[in-house]
């Protein structure tokens, strides 16, 4: 990604629309934004090349797919210098879907998605606790996700 991106209003409008509906065709998006579908295509390719757009994703209903447990795990490291090593090990645990390096009480904060409590227990006891550098963890189980949304780019 370049040091300074020159994103104009059209780039931001494209990103905003695609975040709410990534399946919209370039032609339809072009009509909404009063430009050609070809212009949309060129702009999206440039945004991808610059690293602004990093692919597209489906957001399935995890409960309908049998994943009933979402938990957040605060991870305390023995030493903050172990972050990179521990992060690489945590990446190998397929149930961890998001990991952040944080300030505050925890060194790291992970989001975990599991089919049931038994699977969460396995992640905690058989996978996570065996990683060298982790001092201890605290687990918070989500009872319900009230909402999830993208950041608002344009006012």
TrEMBL record:
<dbReference type="InterPro" id="IPR019887">
    <property type="entry name" value="Tscrpt_reg_AsnC/Lrp_C"/>
</dbReference>
<dbReference type="InterPro" id="IPR019888">
    <property type="entry name" value="Tscrpt_reg_AsnC-like"/>
</dbReference>
<feature type="domain" description="HTH asnC-type">
    <location>
        <begin position="7"/>
        <end position="68"/>
    </location>
</feature>
<dbReference type="InterPro" id="IPR036390">
    <property type="entry name" value="WH_DNA-bd_sf"/>
</dbReference>
<dbReference type="InterPro" id="IPR036388">
    <property type="entry name" value="WH-like_DNA-bd_sf"/>
</dbReference>
<dbReference type="Pfam" id="PF01037">
    <property type="entry name" value="AsnC_trans_reg"/>
</dbReference>
<dbReference type="InterPro" id="IPR000485">
    <property type="entry name" value="AsnC-type_HTH_dom"/>
</dbReference>
<keyword id="KW-0804">Transcription</keyword>
<dbReference type="Pfam" id="PF13412">
    <property type="entry name" value="HTH_24"/>
</dbReference>
<keyword id="KW-0238">DNA-binding</keyword>
<keyword id="KW-0805">Transcription regulation</keyword>
<protein>
    <submittedName>
        <fullName>Lrp/AsnC ligand binding domain-containing protein</fullName>
    </submittedName>
</protein>
<dbReference type="InterPro" id="IPR011008">
    <property type="entry name" value="Dimeric_a/b-barrel"/>
</dbReference>
């Amino acid at each position: 990604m370049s040091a300074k991106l020159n994103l104009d209003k059209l780039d931001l409008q494209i990103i905003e629309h695609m975040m709410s509906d990534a399946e919209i065709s370039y032609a339809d998006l072009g009509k909404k934004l009063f430009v050609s579908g070809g212009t949309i295509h060129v702009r999206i390719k440039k945004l991808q090349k610059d690293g602004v757009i990093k692919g597209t994703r489906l957001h399935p209903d995890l409960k309908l797919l049998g994943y009933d447990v979402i938990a957040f795990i605060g991870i305390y490291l023995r030493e903050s210098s172990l972050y990179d090593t521990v992060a690489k090990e945590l990446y190998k645990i397929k149930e961890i879907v998001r990991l952040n390096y944080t300030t505050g009480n925890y060194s790291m904060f992970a989001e975990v998605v599991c089919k049931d409590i038994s699977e969460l227990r396995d992640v905690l006891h058989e996978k996570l606790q065996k990683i060298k550098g982790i001092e201890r963890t605290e687990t918070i189980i989500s009872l319900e996700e009230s909402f999830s949304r993208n950041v608002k780019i344009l006012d």
